[in-house]
């Protein structure tokens, strides 16, 4: 079954307009809670996820693996491996940014078939910008096709981001030891839905993530690969949301991926 890309886009826009944007910079204390140590959730996350999941199943009646539902029931993630198809939903990617009043948040979804992302959507609600991708058909920003140009050849000109939160002390030391070799090595936006488009459009050249969750990386990973970049595990295997691996390295091209891999990882 072919999925109507525009129909999913409109579902995300409606969820943002009704459940997310009315709470932006207007959340009460009782609308924010901690779902696990260091991880917060808001009423906007929960309401948007419920709305999106219901509407997506009207388009294609397959399991919905939402970030918030999977937090409450981790067994839901098995659908990515065990079911022929499943929806992935991240209702507010960058929840901490959202609660702090930062515009660096996104509403995201992906369709997974046989464990592989085949379509994805990333909506930036504040700007109204939407990024979409289809396996084998390209990546798009508001209808304009994206093509990632090769990154600079010199390591000293490369710009990267590393999510260090779940790194071991030895891994952190390694990253810190090589940071000066790059033009930029920051921590990213705290939102995969912002960082992946930035990499796909040339604002970054590589990104390294620890403990990548499928709802965070399936949408952007497909966008990046369809734009011409790479989203690979450290051993060089393409990222799949049905795999439970710890590290993920994304890059503009193979040369940049190889260089970042050799410097950042043992």
**What topology, given as strand order, has the largest sheet?**
3-4-5-6-7-8-9
Low-pLDDT stretches are none
Major β-sheet profile: 7 strands, mixed
Order of helices and strands: HEEHEHHEHEEEEEEHEHEHEEH
Shape from CA axes? globular
What amount of the residues lies in strands?
A: 25-35%
Q: What is the rounded distance between the termini? A: 43 Å
What is the chains' assembly state?
Answer: single chain
Helix content: 25-40%
Mean pLDDT: 96
What is Rg? 18 Å
List how many beta strands DSSP finds: 14
Structural class: alpha+beta
The number of helices is: 9
Structure commentary:
The protein has 266 residues and is α+β, with helices and mostly antiparallel strands. Helix content is 35%, strand content 26%. It has helices spanning 5-20, 43-59, 67-72, 79-82, 95-99, 169-178, 192-201, 214-227, 254-264, and strands spanning 32-36, 39-42, 64-66, 85-93, 106-113, 116-124, 129-134, 138-141, 144-145, 159-162, 184-186, 206-210, 230-232, 247-251. The strands form three sheets. A seven-stranded mixed beta sheet has the order 3-4-5-6-7-8-9, sandwiched between helices. A five-stranded mixed beta sheet has the order 11-10-12-14-13. Helix 1 (5-20) packs antiparallel against helix 2 (43-59) and helix 7 (192-201) runs parallel beside helix 8 (214-227). The mean pLDDT is 96.
């Amino acid at each position: 079954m072919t999925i109507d890309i525009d129909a999913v886009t409109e579902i995300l826009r409606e969820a943002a307009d009704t459940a997310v944007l009315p709470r932006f910079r207007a959340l009460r204390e009782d609308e924010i809670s901690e779902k696990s140590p260091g991880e917060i959730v808001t009423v906007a996350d929960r309401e948007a996820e419920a709305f999106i999941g219901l509407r997506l199943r009207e388009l294609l009646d397959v399991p919905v693996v939402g970030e918030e539902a999977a937090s409450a029931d981790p067994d839901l993630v098995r659908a990515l491996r065990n079911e022929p198809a499943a929806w992935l939903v991240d209702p507010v990617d960058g929840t901490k940014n959202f609660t702090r009043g930062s515009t660096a948040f996104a509403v995201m979804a992906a369709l997974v078939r046989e464990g592989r992302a085949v379509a994805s959507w990333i909506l930036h609600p504040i700007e109204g910008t939407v990024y979409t991708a289809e396996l084998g058909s390209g990546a798009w920003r508001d209808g304009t096709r994206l093509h990632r140009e090769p990154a600079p050849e010199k390591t000293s000109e490369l710009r990267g981001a590393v999510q260090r939160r779940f790194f071991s002390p030895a891994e952190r030391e390694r990253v810190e030891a090589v940071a000066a070799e790059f033009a930029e090595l920051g921590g990213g936006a705290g939102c995969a839905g912002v960082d992946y488009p930035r990499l796909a459009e040339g604002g970054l050249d590589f990104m390294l993530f620890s403990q990548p969750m499928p709802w965070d990386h399936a949408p952007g990973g497909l966008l990046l690969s369809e734009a011409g970049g790479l989203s690979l595990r450290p051993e060089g295997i393409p990222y799949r949301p049905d795999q439970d691996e710890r590290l993920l390295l994304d890059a503009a091209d193979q040369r940049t991926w190889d260089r970042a891999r050799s410097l950042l990882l043992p």
